[in-house]
Design brief:
This protein has helices spanning 21-44, 53-62, 84-103, 189-193, 231-251, 262-289, 302-311, 321-334, 375-395, and strands at 6-17, 118-119, 125-126, 132-138, 143-151, 160-161, 165-168, 173-183, 199-204, 209-216, 222-229, 294-299, 338-343, 358-361, 364-367, 372-374. It is α+β, with helices and mostly antiparallel strands and 396 residues long. Strands 1, 2, 3, 4, 5, 6, 7 and 8 form an eight-stranded antiparallel β-sheet that branches. Strands 11-10-9-12-13 form a five-stranded mixed β-sheet, sandwiched between helices.
């Protein structure tokens, strides 16, 4: 393995409490005003459009900030006393927004207002722990430090915390802290295949078993199987929520009002996020326990995925598979595991032992040669065999 280092960045989200929330909101307002000023400035200077991020920042500061030579600038910043790193965070956000506008064809007019959260560069926060942080804010007249309480998450020891971000929700303020982990195994898929490789195949179901995981060796032999339950409980919780929404609508005379159902839909969203977190964490944990280096997921076409999602009921756990997949990518990479998607042709209709057609009986299957077992395990094994055959063919 080369000496190159690999990293994974995971965002830790905290709820933030302080007795001076109005100062945080005032800081957000001045941040978005500075952001909009530099956004318009970037669009008005085509000579800056081709510059890299750091060079663009330097050029924009040269035409807005008076330097040591005290020479007047062409477009002075209208606000006095803006902290250096507060200003630079707004400039970088403005450059990103302006370049995004210039790269899009569908947006005809530039953005007129911003309501962005505040990125805190070095010098705008200090003494960050899992319980508290000190933030430099604007109270309407001057900049001052305030202490804020944090709760809802934990910052790990011996990791690098990158620039946090203040995110303003409807009823609360959050602090999002990107945490940088070093990945122990950053090898490519080709490098891993050349050694003894164990893969973890995953099949998502719509029943009580949310996911079926199989550990396969390089010869596609099943070493261990994991069934992750919880589909029945998830369906029950969803039905309870939908019943409450229906009862609420009947009480309003069957008039749909999205704001009246907001708290129930938010709860449903949180149930989905929690289930995706629990299942994805269990898959990665199972893969690590059995020294798997690749997690293999079935790859479906967009049209087929839309057909499946339209056919299943709203309380089916198969609807959470998208969120599980999304969380698997970063959780697995943090532990040095690659996530790969592969084609699914024939994995559910052929026997993994002999290759003959099978007949399904609920969760079970039986082929014409007499082989039988769990059909999801059979599909997982076929998924792994197809992947290993394809990779082996490419390596020749």
């Amino acid at each position: 393995m080369s000496d190159k280092k690999y990293y994974s960045i995971v965002t830790k989200k905290f709820n933030l409490k302080t007795s001076h929330e109005e100062w945080l909101i005032e800081s957000q307002n001045i941040y978005n005003k500075v952001l909009y000023f530099y956004y318009c400035l970037f669009l008005d200077h085509p000579e800056i459009h081709g510059a890299s991020g750091q060079n663009a920042l330097r050029l924009m500061e040269q035409i807005t900030i008076v330097g040591r030579d005290k020479k007047p600038v062409s477009d002075p910043l209208p606000w006095k006393g803006i902290p250096l790193y507060f200003r630079r965070a707004a400039i970088n956000a403005a450059i990103a927004a302006a370049k995004s506008f210039l790269a899009r064809d569908i947006q005809e007019e530039p953005t007129s207002t911003f309501s962005s959260g505040v990125t805190l560069y070095k010098g705008m926060y200090r003494e960050l722990t899992s319980q508290s942080v000190q933030i430099k804010v604007y109270d309407g007249e001057e900049w001052r430090w305030i202490c804020c309480r944090l709760y809802g998450n934990i910052l790990p020891d011996n990791v690098l915390c990158m620039s946090p971000r203040l995110v303003f929700r409807e009823k609360r303020i959050e602090l999002h802290v990107p945490v940088k982990y070093q990945v122990q195994d950053g090898r490519t898929l080709k490098e891993r295949v050349q050694s003894d490789l164990k893969i973890c195949t995953v099949q998502f179901t719509g029943g009580n078993t949310i996911a079926v995981c199989c550990i396969l060796d390089t010869y596609a032999n099943v070493e261990k199987v994991l069934f992750i339950p919880g589909g029945r409980e998830y369906r029950h919780r969803c039905c309870m929520l939908w019943n409450k929404i229906e009862a609420s609508r009947k009480a309003r005379g069957n008039v749909r009002q999205d704001h009246a159902d907001w708290k129930y839909r938010q709860k449903w969203k949180h149930i989905n996020e929690d289930l995706a977190h629990q299942v994805s964490s269990r898959i990665v944990e199972f893969c690590c326990e059995n020294k798997g280096k690749v997690i293999l997921l079935p790859k479906y076409s967009r049209d087929y995925s839309h057909i499946i999602m339209g056919a299943v009921e709203s309380g089916s756990p198969i609807r959470v598979s998208y969120q599980i997949r999304r969380q698997l990518w970063y959780k697995a990479w943090k532990d040095g595991i690659l996530v790969v998607e592969t084609e699914v042709y024939g994995i559910g209709s052929k026997c993994a032992v002999c290759g003959e057609d099978i007949r399904k009986h609920g969760e079970l299957y039986k082929c014409v040669q007499g082989h039988q077992g769990n059909r999801w395990v059979n599909s997982s094994k076929n998924l792994g065999k197809n992947f290993l055959y394809k990779i082996g063919k490419q390596m020749r």
